[in-house]
Amino acid sequence: MIVVLTGAPGAGKGTQADLLAAREGYRKLSTGDALRKHVKAGTEIGRLAGAVMERGELVSDDLLFRILSEELGTIPTSETVLLDGYPRNLAQAEALDTLKASHPVRAAVLLDVPRSELVSRLSGRRVCGSCGASFHVKEQPPRVEGICDKCSGKLGQRPDDNPGSVAVRLDVFEKTTRPILDYYRNKGVFREVVGTGDPESVYRQLNSAIKGK
Hints:
alpha/beta
């Protein structure tokens, strides 16, 4: 079965997905991670996607669905898959539904965070260029400014985390991803969790929502 975890950029999907996978035994599946894996391995799908990305274009829905289908094909149907980063538009949600015979969507949970909070989270985020660890200038600063606690790599701001880019990303979410919520409401699997507060509190609410409690 599949649990769709959705929310705007900066809502905390990655953090919560990692906690759920570690504590509940869910299989986390990120289409972004899967895409990068295929590109790095040089698979047929990876070569196609890599060529698109090199041109600065977005990977098509069809190609992303091929990657998702291949990844799901390696996971026993008895496992619960936590889907992070997919679907991001209505067409992707409908494509995912074609796999319902083997991987039905049991719950679609929105981590809801106010826009002002999202802008603050994203614009203050700093990421290690070596290991990918994430910090925040106010909420989770490194011990030494500009230096990663984990590997001593250099911290920097992602290009799409500047305030102008953040606003665009949030607008895109509202336009393309919000309609998915109505899609899952109509199917009776939609859940909503307030994504503000400490991560442990959010985790408890999210876990309960997934289990239908």
